[in-house]
Every structure is written in C-alpha cells, then in structure tokens.
Design brief:
Layout lengths: L1 H10 L7 E9 L5 H18 L1 E10 L11 H14 L3 E4 L5 H11 L2 E3 L1 H12 L3 H15 L6 H9 L16 H31 L3 E7 L5 H9 L16 E6 L5 E6 L9 H6 L1 H8 L3 E7 L5 H14 L7 E6 L6 H11 L3 E2 L8 H11 L5 E8 L3 H10 L1 E8 L2 E8 L1 H6 L6
Parallel strand pairs: 1-2, 1-3, 3-4, 5-7, 5-8, 8-9, 9-10
Antiparallel strand pairs: 6-7, 11-13, 12-13
Helix pairs in contact: 2-5, 4-7, 5-6, 6-8, 8-11
Amino acid sequence: MTEERNERLIELERPPVTETAILVRLILPGDDPRDVEDSLEEMRRLAWTAGADVAATLVQRRVKACPGTLIGKGKLETLRAACEEHEAGLVIFDCDLTPSQGANIGDTLGLKVVDRTQLILDIFALRAQSNEGKHQVELAQLEYLLPRLTGRGSAMMRQQGGIGIRGPGEQKLEVDRRVVRDRIRRFKAELEGTRKRRRIQRKRRIEGGIGTVALVGYTNAGKSSLLNALTNAGAFVEDKLFATLDTTTRRRELPSGREVTFTDTVGFIRNLPHSLVAAFRATLEEVNEADVLLMVVDASHAAAEEHMKAVRAVLDEIGVGEKPAVLALNKMDIATPMQAHELEARFGHGVRVSARTGQGIEELLRAIDANLTPQRSRVRLRIPQHKGGVVARIHDCGRVIQQDYEDNVVVLEAEVDAALRRQIADYIV
C-alpha cells in the first residue's frame, strides 16, 4: 500500500522547487526512533508542499539541547559543509527554535533558518484563500514574528525572501514592535467580528432544528473529499498537506429526514503550533459548537494511530474531547482490513469508507444520524446576573422562550440539548 501511495503522489504535479534545503533534527534521550522517522518524513512533505527540495538530512544525538544553537558547534560546522556541498540556501529544523537560537544559527551559517512552526505558517500563507483565512494566518505570523524582530539573522531572512517569510514578510513590514502590535490588535478585532457573525448563524440553525456536524482529522486525511462525497460540495481537493484552510459548509438530509450541515475544517498536525490554534479560534469554533464530530482518519497511512492521537490532543486543547463523535476510517480503497481492525481495536468502532469510491457513505450517514441529539428539553433556570457568560451561551446554543429579572437573578425558560443541559445543570430549577 505504501508503494501505491507513493505512485499516486508522484503522479501529482510537483510544486515549483524554489529552494534547496538541509533538514536538521536533534534527538534527545527518550525520543522514540519511530516517532523521529515519522516526524522527519512529515517535515520532508511539509518542505515539499512549500516548494523546497530537501537535499540531505542531518541528525544529532545529544543529552540536552545547546541553549545557544540547539546543536553543538561541531555539528554546526558539519551543517555548514553540507549546505556548501549541496548549494543549499535554506536550513529547516524539525523543532521550534527560540528567537536567539534562530538568530545565532542564521548568523553563523549566513543562511536562512526556518523552524517547524515557521514552515507550517509559510504553507498556511500559501494556502489561505478567503480574507478571513488570510487574516488568521497573518495574525499567527505576526505573533511569531514579534519576539524575532531584533537581530541580524531575522533581518537577513526578511531580505532574502522565499520560504519562511511569505505573508507579512513580503509586505516589507517596518521593524517596529508598535506597528506589529497595532496590526495584531486590528486582526484580532476583525476576527472577533467574524466569531460574532458565526454565532448568529449557528443560533439560526439551532432554532431551525438543523443539526451540525464538523469534519475533523489530520491534514491530508481526506476530509474535503469526504465532504464532497457526502454533500456534492465541490470543495477543493489536493494530495498535499493543508490543502484546505477555509471552512466549507453544506446541508444534507439524513436517513431519518433530519437536515444537518457538514462543515469541513482545517487539518490538524502533530505539535500544532499554539499560535495557529489561537489565530484560528473563529474557525475552530465550528468544532466547538458542532452537535457531532466526524473524525476522519486515513486508515491506509502507516502512522494513522499517531495521527489520531495528535487529533485528539488538539480536540482536548480546544475543549471538545468529550463531544459525541463518529470515526470514519477513510481511504479503504487502498487500506487493508487489518489496518482498519488495528485502528478500531485502539480507538473503538469506526465506519469503513472511501470518499473516492463511495464505499460506506450510507452507513456513515446512519451512524451520524444515531449520534445526533434527537430532542431538546425545556428547562427553567435561575442564573446570577454576574454569570453573563452562562446566559450568553444559552442564547447562542439553545432557544430562549422567556427571560425575566428578579433582584440580581436572571430567570430563563429555554429549550436546550442534552450537552448544554449538563453544562448548566447547577442553575436548573
């Protein structure tokens, strides 16, 4: 199956190679060799997606990282020689570098240095299509850039251009913390407006009795392809990491006759930068407010179990780890039954599907139908006025029938689903 996957990848149009790179990895005690190799392979694909050709991989084992340059001085000289041998102008580290480490390494080598977060941000800058997506990416880039504005290494990077500084870097931002902070505040205000508009849209869907399903999964798991198979959405599909950044929402009637919306979301990745989680808060709220999560996993991938763990870690981080979920074991046209069986043994029963052939789509719809909360219940609540967030959540996620005030208490009659009822149980009369 790995050979077939590689053949399918080779058939794709290769992105224009703009830079030759050397990939560097520091291995510390306790690092799992399999995880190291999986991470390096993922970094090669990330570099490939960004348009870089990884000419060589340099690995060093140390008891602890060097505070100033991550790798030791001797290995840094070996890295310099490798860059000269392969005529590489870019060094990619499979980790996050501190601002001083990035500047020190860049000054020593006289080359551009990019860490894991910066490479992912660069790909996001390439992929974002909508204004919202572009603003979310630029917000994350600016917050990454802010502590790195000083130092010759960062100045050299901005002058060279290319991978690692697309987005704000191309706009020749002034090296002025005040300017960057002002832009960060503006983008945050714009994205807060986006969040408010989406809350209104979600409330209308709830009041109309329309269920919501959010597709989540590792990048390149086939979420957009599955959305197309479920709803004929026509969403953009490409066999690259982070092919989809902008959400797409489509309606579909389930076997029970109930109408739901399916929303495609940005793909996750192991060690997803926290700045991206924060910047994409408006997008990820589609996941927070969904009735059911459709967790899509590429069942044919050798690292599928690690991918699922990474997805669950992000879901826990944004507070939806306990939300009802349906597991879709995708790409069963190239996966083996044993691969699917091993995933089910680890993560519970899943629906075996193929977005490409249509296998299992009807069974998947029935599973989603069964997991949707069938009815709302009517409740009477007494909520202290200083608990305004609780009242706002009931307005956003439930249907308020009547609202009155008694002294310093808000008295509500509302219809809520089971999940919301559990959250507000302390206030139910």
